[in-house]
Amino acid sequence: IFQLSLPLNFLGTIYRELRQNLLDMEVLFRIREENTPLQDKPDALPLALSRGTIRFENVSFGYHNDRPIFRNLSFAVPGGKKVAIVGPSGCGKSTVLRLLYRFYDPDSGKIYIDDQDIQEVQLKSLRRAIGVVPQETPLLHSDVMHNVRYGRLDASEEEVREAARKANVHDTVMRLPGGYATKVGERGLMISGGEKQRLAVARVLLKDPPILFFDEATSALDAHTEADLMRNINNLLRDQARTSIFIAHRLRTVVEADMIIVLKEGQVAEQGTHDELLQKGGLYHSMWYEQALAEDPTSI
Ligand code: ATP
Hints:
The protein is an alpha/beta fold. It has eleven helices and twelve strands. Helix 6 crosses helix 8. It is globular. The N and C termini lie far apart (64 Å). Adenosine-5'-triphosphate binds next to helix 3.
């Protein structure tokens, strides 16, 4: 019994850690799907996407019964728009993504994509529709080719290279000792955070999902890496009517968003564009000046 339970516990630990950190959702799903397959409802249909509109309707949720994270949270993300979710640390920004991806289901309320209740559609089709660019991308211990191809396993080598070019990482890969055959990840060649992130963008480009999530890390990036990152993301979004959601800690990365949703105490405190929210003089306004002051005390 001991021998049997050990690997299962081990997987459980990996699962919890990954779930917690949102490190690499793709890896997580494979582990989860292989070990604890979530059953679709017998009559579940594949998600039928049109514009990629997302709607949270009266969603209440807590990881523990005694500590609600969301209380009747409602908001809508219009299809094809860039939306940022901001708010004080711990307000539940990453939890929005976890619920949308169905790591968890709400205690009450519904989440819709293009008017379909996500609990009623086939889980695989739901997850296929959503791409995540995490800030910290752990690479698989494998070669670069496989690490990018993970976005879509049936992609050809040329498609992988094309995705890498679009993500501005092809030339970097070509300079590695073994090119696309270079082993990276744990025990592999060390590559920089910015390069990893560009590989993650390439992976998502290959997957080509209609809904994109960018989960920004809390840790401050240096200005160069941040500019690099924003360039990659803008490349990814250029000329595309893709729904994209930015979970943002640094407000200056969301100034351009079509809409900013400010969460506080389990609900939407305010929403609007950067200019509208600054004018309003509410929570966003004070967060903005607080951050500006923290980053550069001479700026105000
Ligand atoms: P940050 O800005 O610090 O990244 P966030 O707004 O993304 O935070 P979440 O990660 O969504 O916040 O977490 C919301 C709250 O839920 C936090 O108080 C967090 O401690 C708690 N929490 C998150 N995951 C779990 C979990 N698996 N079990 C219990 N509590 C959790």
